[in-house]
């Protein structure tokens, strides 16, 4: 269900990011909104002070519905509020250095403080979503963040499309659309068994507090590094080039994020199970989850990659002039994301294991490498340089995590199924690429995209299904088919 909501959100996001934004907003305006979001996600990670990661790992010590889960939410919200306050003070003093760069000072400066409300709303959302996830309620958070938020943003865009608002007015509505999803998340959390905001420090013995604090401190850096790899490219592009270039890059980069949706949903669903398995020392179950995550994620990712790659020229027909510069950004980031998907839940497993310190060391290297690569490549290759930097950094941290898990836990998830999936992808892509191209009007382009997409789905999906590479995915496909058939008979 989480995956369905994720891809429903992808469809909504695709309409917004690839059709409405480029055709009704200036490139600089798109760049501004993406830079604000990039700063926001980095601030969110710092504001939580590592509590969400530590809370997930040690939730087994808090879990007690009759006692309100021993003050878990009170402590988390208190830490998050203090962290947000400190982060906001830091941003206030660093504002000038954050907005000083050619081509963007006025636009970013005029809208800079919109960063604070969207950050606070996201901090709260993540806190309550993390609480729900630890209680095995993963669907609501995914539904709200991957679908509802994007749907609200899409609806708000029509206020500009129909000339009801100009951009200076629209950004107020955009802030509301980005933030509003926190309200139903809080409501859902209050409905879960054991909800309480009462303080209870009984679990916080000196020994446990020390362990919790050390883990939190290390994961601040780990989480910050994760945000760096996801958002530093847009921040540094805006610093080194212009908001216009950032707008083009952000539009193209959307496709890389689309490919990662299945892994995000899988991570949310698997993390509590992995925590419990470590608590029981059931490494065999974790190894099984690890192996299945690699295969399943890669299968879904290859299908999406084929859809993107074989339709890439058609997509730019619907965009204004200048966006075609992002073609190689899409290809480079998509290939990097394929590597990420092929390595599955390595980061989640390592972070939740007793060897989590190694992930911190990996992430320190990631920060240095990512900033250096962007600094080196953006001035030379522009937006393609930012894409290369992200793809290389993605390969680095996945190889490092894979090596640590194999060395310390003896977990090696790759089987013959991985090359099988890649061969199926290549053969399916080659076959569909031989189909005749329908050139001409935008209507003919839609027809061309439609039959290529259907062809990819039928050919690739059929081979994957009958080869039984992923029994779990086959089961999901059968259940989906039964649901569709059952709905059609009503």
From TrEMBL:
Primary subcellular site in the record, as a coarse category: membrane
Pfam family, one: Polysacc_synt
Subcellular location: Cell membrane
Membrane-topology descriptor: Multi-pass membrane protein
InterPro entries from the UniProt entry: Poly_Biosynth_Transport, Polysacc_synth
Keywords: Cell membrane, Membrane, Transmembrane, Transmembrane helix
Transmembrane segments: 7-25, 37-60, 72-95, 107-126, 147-165, 171-191, 212-232, 296-316, 328-349, 361-381, 387-409, 421-438, 450-469
Keyword Membrane in annotation: yes
Protein name: Lipopolysaccharide biosynthesis protein
Lineage, opening ranks: Bacteria, Pseudomonadati, Bacteroidota, Cytophagia, Cytophagales
């Amino acid at each position: 269900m989480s995956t369905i909501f994720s891809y429903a959100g992808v469809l909504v996001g695709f309409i917004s990011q690839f059709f409405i934004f480029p055709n009704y907003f200036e490139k600089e305006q798109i760049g501004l909104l993406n830079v604000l979001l990039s700063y926001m996600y980095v601030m969110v990670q710092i504001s939580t002070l590592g509590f969400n990661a530590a809370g997930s790992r040690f939730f087994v010590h808090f879990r007690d519905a009759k006692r309100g889960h021993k003050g878990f939410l009170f402590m988390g919200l208190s830490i998050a509020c203090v962290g947000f306050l400190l982060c906001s003070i830091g941003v206030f003093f660093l504002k000038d250095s954050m907005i000083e760069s050619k081509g963007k000072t006025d636009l970013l400066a005029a809208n800079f403080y919109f960063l604070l409300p969207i950050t606070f709303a996201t901090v709260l959302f993540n806190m309550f979503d993390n609480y729900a996830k630890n209680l095995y309620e993963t669907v609501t958070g995914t539904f709200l963040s991957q679908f509802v938020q994007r749907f609200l943003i899409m609806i708000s865009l029509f206020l500009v499309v129909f000339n009801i608002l100009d951009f200076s007015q629209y950004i107020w509505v955009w802030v509301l659309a980005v933030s509003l999803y926190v309200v139903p998340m809080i409501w859902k959390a209050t409905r879960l068994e054991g909800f309480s905001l009462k303080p209870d420090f009984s679990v916080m013995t000196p020994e446990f507090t020390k362990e919790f604090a050390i883990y939190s401190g290390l994961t601040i850096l780990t989480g910050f590094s994760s945000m760096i790899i996801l958002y530093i490219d847009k921040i540094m592009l805006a610093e080194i080039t212009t908001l216009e270039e950032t707008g083009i890059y952000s539009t193209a980069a959307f496709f890389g994020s689309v490919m990662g949706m299945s892994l995000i949903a899988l991570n949310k669903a698997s993390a509590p199970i992995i925590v419990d398995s470590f608590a029981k020392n059931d490494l065999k179950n974790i190894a099984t989850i690890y192996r299945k995550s690699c295969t399943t994620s890669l299968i879904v990712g290859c299908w999406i990659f084929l859809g993107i790659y074989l339709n890439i020229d058609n997509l730019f027909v619907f965009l204004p002039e200048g966006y075609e510069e992002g073609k190689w950004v899409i290809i480079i980031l998509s290939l990097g994301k394929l590597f990420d998907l092929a390595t599955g839940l390595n980061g989640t497993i390592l972070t939740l294991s007793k060897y989590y310190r190694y992930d911190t060391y990996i992430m320190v290297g990631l920060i240095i490498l990512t900033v250096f690569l962007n600094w080196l490549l953006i001035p030379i290759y522009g937006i393609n340089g930012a894409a290369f930097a992200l793809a290389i950094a993605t390969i680095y941290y996945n190889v490092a995590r894979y090596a640590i898990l194999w060395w310390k836990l003896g977990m090696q998830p790759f089987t013959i199924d991985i090359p099988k999936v890649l061969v199926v992808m290549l053969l399916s892509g080659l076959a569909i690429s031989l189909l005749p191209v329908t050139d001409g009007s935008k209507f003919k382009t839609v027809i061309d995209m439609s039959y290529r997409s259907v062809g990819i789905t039928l050919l690739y999906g059929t081979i994957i299904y009958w080869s039984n590479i992923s029994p779990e995915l086959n089961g999901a496909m059968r259940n989906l088919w039964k649901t569709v058939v059952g709905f059609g008979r009503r």
